[in-house]
Amino acid sequence: TNLPLGRMEFLPVIYQFHKKYGKKVRLCHLFYFTANPSLSDSSNPNLEIIRWILPMALADFDSYEPYYTYTKSSSNDMKMLLWPYYLITSRIVIVISAHLDCAVVHLDADTNRIYRQEMLDLLAQSRPLRIHTRSFESSLDFYLQVTQGNGPLLSTLEYQPCVSPLISKELYISQLQKENLSQTDLPLFGKLMNLNPFIQGESSHYFTMQGLRSFCETGRILGQFGTYLDPLSTETRRQVLSRYINDLRRHSHSRIIRSSIRLPATLNIELYRNNFILFILFEKHQRIRFVSISEASLYEVFLDFFQALDGPAYSYSAEETLATLKSALQSL
User: Distance (Å, rounded) from C-alpha 322 to C-alpha 252?
Assistant: First the structure.
């Protein structure tokens, strides 16, 4: 379907149907970002789209497959089109008027086949909003493509401090061999481990007080590939946190955010310099879900958000963050 988001009330219904009865109804949803949002009659129509789409894309709702493309048409332009919306199933096609007050149902099999093929062609030309990986190899491959293809990392917001790159490669490899990581993938993993955010330049990292406490108390890593590690020993925690503090002394790019900002333990948000935003959701059974957005107006919104995080209203100062980290290290 390409139904406008304001009329997608049936999405939660499908989600509950899926969760309660285990019935998976595959739903491919094509939506349109406005190419020139500054010319729109609303403040930012693309941000309104994300407000609707992002919660569903991050939910445990595998049957929902959002795709996006760009249009120069506005919502007012759509109102001038004849039957601009559609809902296609395996048996019927429903075309819907611009004002969503009238519809025509097609039951003919040949008509349905034509519409389905046209929809598949449109999806092939669009970009998937969500990438769902089910193995270490696939998540590693995708994340490496992102880090190399979208410019340097600018800012991250995550539950825990970013200590994953400071863990020894030997520890990673010994753990990942339990996951049957093939020897041919070890060089690829080595390249990723060299992408230490502190080494790469002027990137900023924000994390929560609760995440720091969780790491110190349990040794559990919640990052992209720490997901595959067993809890770290107390001694390894000391070593890793000490390295993190040393990096912070040299770069001062990490801040602890205040409790007024709530962040799930399973979600990371990364902002890259090439108009690229990446949401990373860690799921059960070592599954990782990626939601990627490459849209200029939305990028500016998230850039403003990260810049605001650096202020005293939303995060502790570099000195306060460093003092808290030292106190946590001493408590281990």
Answer: 9
Q: Shortest CA distance to 89 belongs to which of 120, 112, 122, 114?
A: 112
Please tell me the distance from the alpha carbon of residue 268 to that of residue 220, in angstroms, as a whole number. 16
* CA quadruple 13, 14, 15, 19: dihedral sign: positive
* Per-chain mean pLDDT for the chain: 80
Arithmetic mean of pLDDT, 4-25 = 68
Q: pTM for this structure?
A: 0.80
327 close to 216: Cβ distance less than 8 angstroms: no
Gap between the Cα atoms of 227 and 207, Å rounded: 17
**DSSP-derived secondary structure letter, 315:** B
Confidence band, pLDDT 50/70/90 cuts, at residue 310 = confident
C-alpha 294 chain-centroid distance: 12
DSSP designation for 67: E
Residue 328, pLDDT score = 94
Question: What's the per-residue H, E or C state across 222-249?
Answer: CCCCHHHCCCCCHHHHHHHHHHHHHHHH
- φ/ψ of 268, rounded to 5, equals -115, 145
Q: If we measure between CA atoms, which residue out of 229, 49, 251, 258 comes closest to residue 153?
A: 251
Parallel, antiparallel, or unpaired: how do β-strands 267-272 and 254-257 relate? unpaired
pLDDT of residue 32: 85
DSSP E strand boundaries for 166-316? 204-208, 254-257, 267-272, 276-282, 288-293
Which of 52-56, 265-269, 298-302 bottoms out in mean pLDDT, i.e. has the lowest? 52-56
Residue 73 CB partners (closer than 8 Å, separation 6+)? 32
pLDDT of the residue at 199: 45
- Walk across the sheet containing 276-282 and list its strands: 130-133, 288-293, 276-282, 267-272, 153-157, 204-208, 254-257
Handedness of CA 272, 138, 130, 221 (dihedral sign): negative
